[in-house]
Amino acid sequence: MLMFNEFEHLEMKEKILELLSHREMTVTELANALGISKATVSHHLERLKKEGLVKVSREERVKNFIRRFYTIAIPNGNVGKLIVDLIKDSAERRDGKEMFRNTVRLLGYCMLRVSPHLFKRLGYEVGYSLSFEGANLEDLAELWENLGMGKTSCTNRELVVEDCYFCSRLPKIGETYCKFDEGLISGFMAKSTGKVFDVKEVKCWGLGDELCEFRLNPSIHRISP
């Protein structure tokens, strides 16, 4: 039985994904390119399939065995395919603004599926950089609209976004899409108040709603100087 530590898997994962980003490949081709055994490649491919990062793109029968070709998978294919179709449509219409928006949505959605916690942390860093001392949720709501991220309304502890730049008109998937926005709100409020906020999206197109609603719960902790 093959055994690998997490570091070895992460290192090989990057090498395999780099190769598959150029073209589809078989286990034998990957093994030859990486200088490792086919058994080792198969082990890593199985993990990457479970993580939703690779898939079998096609199969060929060669004498008495099946040759499988692997490629990088678009996470949660139905939503990913929908966004890709939107990109194609906006390109055909020469709508550069909409094409850019949908490209950002696709990249964000892929990151959401691969690492939602990292996606949220990136949002936190952006929100923190955009904030300023003494700012409040109304300031963030105004900034949100100025950046073209949606139409907003807010109270002291809630931010509602209509026509969300990221998830509006995407299908219901049983979970929220806007982890980046959760992080952005948290980072913005952390810098302006010096407090930690737990931000949770409670309404989203991903849950079947036609708007996004974020609730802020302040923690007893404060941001370290």
Structure description:
The structure is a single chain. The protein is of the alpha+beta class. Helix content is 49%, strand content 20%. The strands form 2 sheets. It has a 4-stranded antiparallel sheet, covered by helices on one side.
Features:
6 strands; Muramoyl-pentapeptide Carboxypeptidase, domain 2; alpha+beta; four-stranded antiparallel beta sheet; 3 domains; two-stranded antiparallel sheet; 49% helix; 225 residues; Arc Repressor Mutant, subunit A
Q: What topology emerges from the helices and strands here?
A:
Blueprint: H1 6-20, H2 27-34, H3 38-50, E1 54-62, E2 65-72, H4 77-92, H5 96-114, H6 116-130, H7 137-146, E3 151-154, E4 158-162, H8 179-193, E5 195-203, E6 212-222
Antiparallel strand pairs: 1-2, 3-4, 4-6, 5-6
Helix pairs in contact: 2-3, 4-5, 5-6, 6-8
